[in-house]
Specification:
single chain; 2 domains; 16% strand
Length: 303
């Protein structure tokens, strides 16, 4: 007598398990009402179970999980090609059922032969592709607006959270930047004062104390020392001695030194700014006409 038990509808398949005298050392694939049916023996329950697959919706990983749900004694379930290559769990069952494969349950390997399905004509294949495309467009039309609103809400919440985190950091950064800029400007004015003092001292020594014959070698070595200092700057920094770049470098030096004394985390600040820019860019792209399914305004070139 045949004992048939319906286990209920799962996400992508319907399983029917029953006791039978059919040999348990095989896994078969057949087609019923156009859908593939995988029949196999559950090792712990000693019952054969049929899984009706929806090839275009079911993934290999989902199919293996459903097998393990039917028999809690299955600890390992994997699928391989006939040459031993493992099939990823993200692959669709439609791809798997194109060729023969091997099903491994615990320590037992089953060679599964997939029957040749009647091939569709080109007209039927084209009609099926049109139906798929229509279903896809209907799904987008029905769910796109909700998805966009939910996505926009998530981005706005993240944007507010990032801005709240940045407010105290921005205030501290502004104070540190003001202090560093003031020190940099004082250094520049100090340099101007020293150069002016040097020029006045050389003029005084040349015309009032000594003569040009004595001061000429002194000015030569001062010029040579300046050139040597500029070259040393290039060797140490790998940059030319350009006044705007020197100012920016000195500003960063004062800024980072002040940041350490004030316990200002520059790296964390930069990460938050990058995250804020990414969220704003995502919002901008979300509001584009193509994402909102709105007509794009035509732009006429002006002559």
């Amino acid at each position: 007598m045949l004992r048939l038990k319906q286990t209920g509808n799962l996400k992508h398949h319907k399983a029917a398990c029953y006791s039978t005298l059919v040999p348990s050392d095989e896994v078969t694939v057949s087609y019923r009402y156009g859908l593939p049916v995988v029949t196999l023996m559950l090792p712990s329950r000693k019952e054969r179970c049929q899984f009706t697959i929806k090839p275009m919706l079911t993934r290999v990983g989902t199919f293996l999980q459903d097998i393990q749900k039917e028999d809690k004694g299955i600890e390992r379930a994997e699928v391989f090609t006939t040459d031993g290559s493992k099939i990823p769990t993200t692959a669709l069952m439609e791809i798997l059922l194109m060729n023969d494969f091997k099903l491994v349950i615990n320590n037992t390997t089953y060679s599964v032969q997939v029957p040749v399905k009647e091939k569709w004509s080109r007209e039927h294949a084209t009609e099926a592709e049109d139906i798929k495309s229509l279903v896809h467009r209907l799904f987008i039309a029905l769910h796109l607006e909700d998805h966009q609103l939910r996505r926009e809400r998530e981005l706005l919440q993240k944007l507010d959270h990032l801005r709240e985190q940045l407010v105290p950091l921005e205030q501290m950064k502004a104070k540190i930047a003001t202090s560093a800029d003031a020190k940099t400007n004082r250094l520049l004015w100090t340099g101007l004062a020293l150069l002016s003092t040097q020029g006045g001292a050389l003029a005084w020594l040349t015309w009032w104390v000594y003569s040009w014959d004595i001061m000429e070698p002194v000015t030569y070595f001062i010029t040579y020392g300046s050139a040597l200092a500029f070259y040393a700057y290039f060797v140490l920094t790998k940059q030319d001695y350009v006044y705007p770049d020197v100012k920016d470098r000195q500003f960063l030096h004062y800024f980072y030194r002040k940041s350490r004394s004030q316990h200002f985390d520059v790296e964390q600040y930069n990460k938050l700014k990058e995250a804020l820019a990414e969220v704003e860019e995502s919002l901008r792209r979300l509001h584009q006409p193509l994402h909102l399914q709105l007509p794009i305004q035509e732009i006429n070139d002006k002559d």
